[in-house]
Amino acid sequence: MMTNATAWRFGPLDTWFFREARGFDTSGSQELNSLFPPPARTLAGAIRTLIGEQQGVDWKRFAQDGEYADLKDWIGAGDDLGALRLTGPYPLWQGARLYPAPLHLLAKGKEYRWLTPGAPVACDLGTVRLPALEAPLPGAKPLEQVWLTGADLRQVLNGKAPNQVFRAGDLYDEEPRLGIARDNRQRTGIDGLLYQTRHLRPHDGLAIGAEVRGLPSALQPVRGMTRFGGEGRSSAVTVTAAPAPLPVPAPDGQRLLLLLLTPADFGSDWFPPGFRPQQHHGLTVWCGDLHGIPLILHSAVIGKAAREGGWNLLRQQSRPVKSLIPAGSVFFCSIEGDPRHAVQALHGQHIGHDTALGRGELAVGLWRMKEKDET
Predict the structure, then answer these.
(1) Residues β-bridged to residue 142
(2) pLDDT (tens digit, 9 = 90+) per residue, 342-363?
(3) Exposure letters 231-250 (e unless 16+ CB within 10 A, then b)
(4) Who contacts 281 (Cβ-Cβ below 8 Å, separation ≥6)?
(5) Which strand ranges, in their side-by-side order, compose the sheet holding 146-148?
(6) Which pLDDT tens digit goes with each residue over 35-82?
(7) Are strands 99-100 and 146-148 parallel, antiparallel or unpaired?
(8) Which of 52, 75, 205, 275 could bond to 286 as cystine, CB 3.0-4.6 Å?
(9) HSE value, Cβ hemisphere, 13 Å, CA-based, for 250
(10) What is the C-alpha to C-alpha distance for residues 46 and 122, in angstroms, rounded to an integer?
(11) How far apart are alpha carbons 153 and 19 in whole angstroms?
(12) Any long-range contacts for 315-319 (C-beta under 8 Å, 24+ apart)?
């Protein structure tokens, strides 16, 4: 069977609500916000639901051992994704993918500055190079919840300012909602169980995208409708051939910048699994291999932890909440050997745990150190 990569587009028919990790019973008087883009398991669930429904699956039977074994080999069940492999989720704007702005890029209005490993500093990690601005810009802030086109991302990864940025308000509006828990048997509200949520109202041109690999073409629909996110809001799904990937950058020296395009699961660490601290020219660095490429990790710019939980439909229970390294985080690395081979081996790959869910997608860029800070 053919298993070519396909691009899935989830177009909104109503508002979106991708609930944050807090539960309704723990929020108190506060609103529950919506995540954007949605968690990877929300996307995987929507994909598997649509495939199953178009195959006529009886979901009660599907939850039983031994039922639909052939289909489970392809789409899995529960935490097992079977042969299904994802890239994403990510925003689509006017049909083109948007990428998270790297967090080492700071802005004040239309002015930009970059964080790079600075002079050695003694701290709880040892003597390390903490990120520092390459040139002063008072009031500059990291570009959190900001997205770039592919062309602008390539510019930023080569040390050039972007031409355009997309902030949350450019893509969607936020709508507060007030609700009350219901007693479905009596068709009445339940006293004292009010809740507040904040939905997202997408602007025209916004959709959620993902790439799917590992499935035969016979299982993948051309189009359909499925419930997507909280409250079962419907989305229109279209499936097409996957677009060309982000071009591989031309290396310039032995220093590589690794950018997370999707959140990564590194367990309880801030650095990739298998990396260990070592002494290098009197500094503490972290050494390890990624996809067969030995790397020295000198410094990193990491955003606020992305918290993901969710609901396990197969077991009918909540999933444990995980803290993930957020998209946009960057790692300043150096290599020995052929930089072209390293870039080819790392660009577009996934690192960390649960990579089948699309976690830890990498883009490779370049970085430079100020001359006075060279060792």
Answers:
(1) 106
(2) 999 999 999 999 999 999 999 9
(3) eeeebebebeebeeebeebe
(4) 375
(5) 99-100, 146-148, 166-167
(6) 999 999 999 999 999 999 999 999 889 988 889 999 999 999 988 999
(7) antiparallel
(8) 275
(9) 1
(10) 48
(11) 28
(12) 315/78, 318/23, 319/41
